[in-house]
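Researcher: I'm preparing a figure for a lab meeting and need a structural model of a single chain. I don't have an experimental structure, so a prediction will have to do for now. The sequence is pasted below. Please return the structure as C-alpha cells so I can convert it later.
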Amino acid sequence: MKQLFHNPVFRLAVSVLLLAIAPACFKRGGEGGNIDYWTCTMHPSVHSKDPGKCPICSMDLVPVMKESVTPASSSKNAPQHDHVAMLAGKPTGSSANSSPSHEFVVPVERQQQIGVIFAIVETKPLSHSIRAVGRVVPETQRVWRVVSRTPAYVQELGVNAPGELVKKDQVLMKLYSPELLTTQRELIDLLRSRDRTPKNTHSAHENFQRLIESAERRLRLWNVTDEQIAKIEQTRQAEESLPILSKVDGIVQSLPVTQGANVAMGSPLVEVADLSVVWVWGEFYQDELPMLQIGQTITVTSSSYPGEKFQGQITLIDPFIDDAKRTGRVRIDIQNPELKLKPDMYVDLLLDMDMGRSLVVPVSAIIPTGKRNIAFVDKGEGKLEPRVLELGGKFGDVYAVKSGLKEGERVVASANFLIDAESKIQGALKDFQQ
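Model: Understood. Here is the structure written out cell by cell.
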C-alpha cells in the first residue's frame, strides 16, 4: 500500500478525483442552510426541496443558493481556473489583482520518479535537407544522330547492336551512293582540268576553283569529312563507299538499319550518345522550389552503387509546375567519366543547405497549445516555470527559438505531459484554496 501511495500516476488520479468531489461536498455540508431549492441543469423547470435525480433525464440535481438564481456550480463567486492563461503567463481569477508567480514546484524526487530529463538551450548551426528523386537522361548536345542525306545502300556495318562502346573517328558503317560517287569523280575531273590549265590564265583558274569549292561543299553536306575530301584530292581516286565516322567517344544508342538495307534521304542511320556528362531531371515540390538556385551542389546516389555519391550542379529550374503532382522539374549536370550513371536510371537527390546559427531546443521540449508553444523552464530546487516561446523552423529533431528562452537555461525535454498535468493540479488547488 505504501508503494502504491508513492506511485505518481496513482497520486495524480486521487488528486483529480478529490478535486471533482470536493466542491460538491463543501457546498452540501457548509452551505446547506443557504440552499433555496434543487434543480436540473438540463431542465431548469424542475424544482425540488431535497436532493435527488431529475424525473426527466435522471441526472443529479444541483443546489440553487438563496443569494443566486443560478446553480451553485456556476456561482460567480466560485473561483475559476484557466490553465491556458496560467501557461501563457497571464493572471487568472482573483490573482489578477496581485503579482502572481507562475512557478510551481515538482520535487526533485518526484521528477526522477516520472522520468523528467532536461535539455540545455544552446546555439547551434542549423541545416536543412531536401530530398527528391530523379531520372538520368543523356545530354542532348552530346547525342549525335546520323541521317542519310542522299539515297544509298548500307554496304557494311562497323557496329552490331545498341550499347556498344565506340571511339571518336571509328567507322560505324559504309554507304554506297551513286550520287556520292558521281560527285567525287566530278571533283577529281575539275582538279585535273585545273592542273592542265596554263598558270598565266587567271580567269580560268578562278572558274575551276569555284567549281571545285562547290563540289567540296556538296560532299560535306553528305557527311564527308574534310580529311576524307583531302584524301580524295590527294590520291585523285573516288571512294566507292562512304564511311560514316563517329564524332565522339560514346555508346551506340540506336541502330535502326541492317547490312544491305536501302535507305532514303532523311532516313536515320545510327545514334551515338556521349555519356561522360549526363543530366538528371529531379522533381521537387512547389514549396521547395524557392529554396533552389542555379549553381547549387546536389548529392546524387543510386541503389546500384551503395555508399557511392555523385556530385552535380543545378543548371536549370523549369518554371512550369506539373498540375497533377504539384512538382517542378530541376536539371542537374553530373560528370560521368566511368559511365556508371545510365540513361533512364532512377536516382536519389539530396540538397543540404546552411541555415545559419540559432538558439535551439529539442522538439520533445515543446507543448503546442493551439497558437502558442509552451516549454517548462527549470528554476532550480524543483521549481518549474511555464514559458511561451516564439519558434522558428523545425530542423531535424530541434526547433529554432526566436524568443522566450536564453542560452544556458534548462528546459524539460521528457515527461512534459506529466509535468503539465502536475501544473494543472497545483493551479486548481491554489484556486480552490482561495
